[in-house]
Design goal:
Length: about 400
């Protein structure tokens, strides 16, 4: 079947098998050509391993450190009868696993709800079967709109709203390429609570406790979860909004998890990463317009990084290679340092008030935003023949 992109708002409902494989191959090539990471992890569990920052983390662990990896994710296989391709994360994982196998690396895939006890148990079993039998790195990189509490069965849904007062801002219709004004409503107390339950630190802590109870934490085990702060411009919708409160909860959980891991001479921390086009970030109002400007400014300054470059830097300059973690005043690692640079933010603030639908393509890198978005689903990669039939089924 010839697979074409079908974009619906901030989602593309199709994914291209060869395109996704090429995307993964490029990331592996970047890591391998950048050099092996010394004293790296030997066995990693990546929760949210199929796309975005989690996939980049798995690639750095496997191809940079030669680690065994257990990847947990929630992806959809293809339905050939209905001519429905699998999700991008499924094809990414199929490509990752094939390459890991070629290099003799242990790679186990667990597809299902990471918030559930059953998936935690499956991941523990897969860790026990790995050559090391334990994990020395746990990356928590989930981005999910809902969570079912494993103890009570209650379903929490996260919302992307402001807290305290509504907020009006420019935003971007990424389908039409139009800049327009929007007002983001204020969340109710219940919505704030539910968002914190979904995207906060609760589940990260449950994972660590489950791994500890199962005796699969290696000496010196490190755990990292990813967070975002961003510019003042997006504070009302991000840092001071519902999602920001969830991220603050995640940061608090890092302290509690750190105490558990210290018993194993390990540590836990939050890494604040740069804003990038991923399936998760494209759903946040205002952020796509900010990203289009950010890409332009950072590319012009020659300091743009994508997920794999961000995570390779985290692994090679902070976590491993004989380096030490460089914490900010709140105990977080900041690989968003280049995004937060004064000259970068000043340049963005100069563009922001001027940008409208007419000058969008001159003042921002909206074209890169669009192409990066399609690339997430395997479209627009130079080495792929999109006129050729693709086999939809892929083994993970
Ligand atoms: P993404 O959407 O690319 O990846 C999300 C991952 O979570 C996928 O592997 C997906 O399969 C998995 N997942 C979602 N729900 C699941 C469930 N119930 N069970 C199992 N797996 C599930 O997202 P992205 O952007 O890579 O985000 C990962 C983390 O990085 C998030 O915590 C996000 O807040 C953070 N982050 C993202 C930034 C960005 O600009 N994209 C910037 C800084 C931090």
């Amino acid at each position: 079947m010839i697979v074409q992109p079908k974009v619906k708002g901030f989602l593309c409902v199709t994914a291209h098998p060869e395109g996704c494989a090429q995307n993964v191959a490029e990331q592996i090539e970047y890591v391998e050509s950048s050099g092996k990471i010394k004293e790296g992890c030997k066995s990693a569990l990546i929760i949210g391993a199929s796309t975005g920052y989690g996939l980049a983390s798995r690639i750095c662990a496997a191809f940079g450190c030669e680690a065994s990896t257990v990847g947990v994710f929630f992806e959809r296989p293809a339905d050939s009868a209905k001519e429905r391709p699998a999700s991008a994360g499924w094809y990414n994982t199929a490509a990752f696993s094939a390459e890991a196998k070629k290099r003799g690396l242990y790679a186990a895939n667990i597809n299902g709800d990471a918030f559930s006890d059953a998936i935690k148990e499956q991941a523990i079993e897969a860790i026990k079967k790995s050559p090391q039998g334990k994990v020395d790195l746990i990356v928590y990189s989930l981005a999910s709109p809902r969570r079912t509490d494993p103890k009570t069965g209650q379903v929490y849904k996260s919302v992307l709203k402001t807290v305290g007062a509504e907020f009006s801002s420019k935003t971007l219709d990424t389908d039409k390429g139009e800049v327009f004004s929007t007002t983001i409503p204020c969340a109710t107390e219940q919505e704030v609570f539910d968002t914190v339950k979904t995207m906060g630190g609760d589940d990260w802590e449950l994972w660590i406790k489950a791994l500890e109870n199962a005796g699969v934490l290696a000496e010196g085990c490190t755990s990292v979860a990813y967070s975002y702060i961003g510019p003042k411009l997006t504070y009302p919708i991000y840092r001071e909004g519902t999602i920001g409160l969830a991220k603050k909860d995640l940061e608090k959980a890092a302290d509690r998890i750190d105490s558990i891991l210290k018993l194993h001479r390990g540590k836990a921390f939050v890494s604040v990463n740069k804003a990038l086009v991923t399936q998760a970030s494209s759903a946040i109002p205002v952020v796509p317009l900010y990203l289009s400007i950010l890409y332009k400014v950072m590319k012009e300054k020659g300091i743009h990084e994508d997920c794999i470059r961000q995570i390779y830097r985290l692994f090679s300059k902070q976590l491993y290679n004989g380096n030490f973690l460089d914490f900010d005043d709140c105990g977080r690692v900041r690989i968003d340092d280049l995004e937060q640079r004064r000259d970068v933010q000043d340049a963005i603030m100069e563009i922001w008030p001027k940008v409208d639908s007419q000058n969008l393509r001159q003042l921002t890198d909206f074209d890169s935003y669009k192409s990066e978005f399609l690339k997430l689903f395997g479209f627009g990669l130079p080495k792929v023949d999109y006129g050729k039939d693709s086999k939809l089924d892929a083994e993970i």
